[in-house]
Write a structure and sequence with these properties.
Alpha-D-Glucose-1,6-Bisphosphate, Chain A, domain 4, 38% strand, 14 strands, globular, 294 residues, alpha+beta, 7-stranded antiparallel β-sheet, 2 domains, single chain
Amino acid sequence: MTTTNFSTAILVDQSPSEVFNAINNPRGWWSEEIEGNTSNLNDEFEYHYEDVHRCKMKLIEVVPNQKVVWKVLENYFSFTKDKSEWKDNLIIFEISKKGDKTELRFTQEGLVPEYECFDICQNAWSTYIQKSLFDLITTGKGQPNGRSNAKSDYSTIILVDQTPHEVFNAVNNVRAWWQGEVEGNTEKLNDEFTYQMEDIHYSKQKLTEVIPDKLVVWLVTDSNLNFVSNKVEWTGTKIIFEISEINNKTQLRFTHQGLVPEFECYDDCSNAWGMLIQQSLFSLITTGKGKKVF
């Protein structure tokens, strides 16, 4: 029977013991904000990522140098209708020898395409396992989420099979993924365009940095958000798309520099960006067509 649970694998030169120890150090590859014990049978710990994702895990199986299983006891997503989609899923790390190398197979049992969060979650796990955990195992230093800072800018990541050039072109095809009315040019240095979503949101962007296949930066030169007290909250902020290659995949890191939790619009805007980048832009890159998300 074909399984549809999300799964991915990495192959490293290090020993099963080194892989096992790295898995049990999720602060070193998943998030520095993990609270609780993460190594022994029946340990419980909590994961937190800004206001987007919280979960509580319990280690229900620990076979040294062979297997670790976490059960999701509690879960909260800010961006799905069913906020608890992960609840009761099993997160499984299986370690085995492959010739003179060690394979780590990661599976989230229950994370299936029917989940609203599937695209976002599989992209996130791919980054954490293929890049951050891989780096922790092979170099001793992963790339976990840092501790939240009161001034932290909103940021999110997607990982795709397409080339940096294809990702760059999709980013610049703003009309195809940012829902609303876009007027003006959106591709070259010093281009300017306006965005309008009904009478809710207006903003004007100028392309201040364009490095083909690597970087696009928009400066918000004007804005009007009708649902907050300070209508021009976005004015002066920067919207940044950073493109890089990671383990034969392409990573797109999106950051809205200046969109911080102190903004009145932060919750609404960060949720909207999350859906637009993780779903609509991801769909445009991977299928050639953006996705309507609201």
